[in-house]
Amino acid sequence: MFWISKKTATYSEAWKNGFVDIHNHLLPGIDDGSKSVAQTEAMIQGMQELGITEAIATPHTYPGLWNNNSETISAAFKTVAHPFITKSSSEYFADAYLLERAEKQQLIPLKDDFLLIEFAIMSEPVDAIMDVLFELKLKGYRLVLAHPERYSYWEKKLNIFEQLKSFDLDFQLNALSVVGYYGPTCKKMAEYLLENDYYDFLGTDFHTLEQIAFAKNHLFAEKYLKKIMPLVEANQFFSTK
Ligand SMILES: [Fe+2]
Q1: Domains in the chain, CATH or no CATH each
Q2: Across all residues in the chain, what is the average pLDDT?
Q3: Which of 108, 112, 113, 71 is nearest to 91 (CA)?
């Protein structure tokens, strides 16, 4: 008989003093997240049980898939009207169209000039994306890249992350990545990025009740708690309370 000593931690520990979530799909009926106000309310309850104290809602704005705009987002925000969701913003798909929207001043930042952006999960962004990011930066936006660890096409090209950081992108870790929800590659990439202190912020990216339950019931290695806690603190910047 032998014992394996494995120290683990949970998100309830990480969030025991509160947490401001800056990435989730709580607004009902406008993307692949919550389907109804009742589901949003149940998700809020689950998030509060985990220790999360407030959230900025970030439905997808993804041309051709989720054609949201400030009107659709603010209408969904009003249907919930729950004090837990302090503000609505969006998770913007990074493409040339995003720049067009920025030029027309149609974007809703997380706070000040902080914009949450994502790349495609299945295919690497085209080189021209760097020009778009550069133009957005020139316009004064501070870009927060959602879940870099989920872009598995960069698994063997980890130097890309150094390039993106030197381009002054902030990185947002998905809470579910380190508990293995998206699979071993994503978990490994998240651990690599945590160990190398690449992350600036943390988000849940919760779409469903099932994901909230997964975060509640799964552990991560305790050594990452000291890497995750500074992100929890950094998110406090987005608090409106
Ligand atoms: Fe998301």
Answers
A1: 8-236 (3.20.20.140)
A2: 95
A3: 108
